[in-house]
Structures are given as structure tokens and as C-alpha cells.
Amino acid sequence: MSEFLRIGEVAQAVGVSVDTLRRWEQQGRITFQRRGSQRVLPVAELPRILAGLSGSSSRSSARNRMPGIVVGVEQDGVMAKVELACGDFRIVSLMSREAAEDLGLEVGKPAVAVVKATTVIVEA
Fold first, then answer.
1. Which residues contact 122 (CB under 8 A, 6 or more apart)?
2. Which of 17, 60, 84, 100 is the most exposed, having the fewest neighbouring CB atoms within 10 Å of its CB?
3. From CA 39, how far away is CA 24, in angstroms rounded?
4. What's the pLDDT tens digit per position in 13-46?
């Protein structure tokens, strides 16, 4: 395994676009090294980047944490439907409108889907 990840590999692992990573680099949120014309990130830096997406240092018993980017927010009177792109996965959460507003959820912002369930049943 290589000791560096190309920017496209980092984008896939984090669940964002290459353009988002370039924007984050301009904002100083991430620092890539240059190998010729390629932007690369040391593999050891990836956990720090993923942890930074969670935005939380609180402890939880939940182990299913999927960092991603908010790709949709629909709100009505009391409820909100929030859609996240977490790598290859699309996660949809229903929550109170107040909770969505308190979290500042809007399209393009990083967020973490935390799943804690004993049973998931889907039938068609």
C-alpha cells in the first residue's frame, strides 16, 4: 500500500468532491503535498481529516459513524428531512426542524451520520 493518497482517493474516502478538497485546501482546512503535478496526502493524515468532519469531541456508544456532506435539506412546519452523501452511501434522516436549525445543517456542510439501531427491517 502506498504511503500517500491521491486527491481523488481522499475525496472518495471522505465522501466529497475533488473540488471541495481543493476549496478546503485554499481555506487552510487541509494541506496536500505535491508529487509532480499531483496533490497527495499522507495516509496517516486521513483519520485526522475524517475526525475533523464529525465536528464533535463528545463520547458515544454508537460505533456506526459515517462522515459526509449534506446534499439536501427539506423543512416544513415542524419536521426536516436531511440527506447526506457519505462515501458510496446516501443517508436520509428525519428530525425536528428545530434540531436541523440548531445544527446549522445546510447543503454543502460536513456532517456525520451516527447510526445506533438494534433492528433495521426493509421489505419490498
1. none
2. 60
3. 13
4. 787 889 989 988 998 888 999 999 999 998 878 7
Q: What percentage of residues in the chain have a pLDDT greater than 90?
A: 31
Separation of alpha carbons 77 and 98, rounded Å? 10
**Is the confidence at residue 77, as pLDDT, over 70?**
yes
24: its cell numbers: 478546503
Question: What spatial distance separates the first Cα and last Cα of the chain, rounded to whole Å?
Answer: 41
Average pLDDT over residues 63-91: 89
What is the identity of the amino acid at 26? Answer: Q
What is the amino acid identity at position 79?
Answer: M
DSSP letter, residue 2: -
- Give ∠ CA 115-119-124 in degrees, rounded to 5: 105
- Exposed, middle or buried: residue 77 (CB in 10 Å: 0-12, 13-18, 19+)? exposed
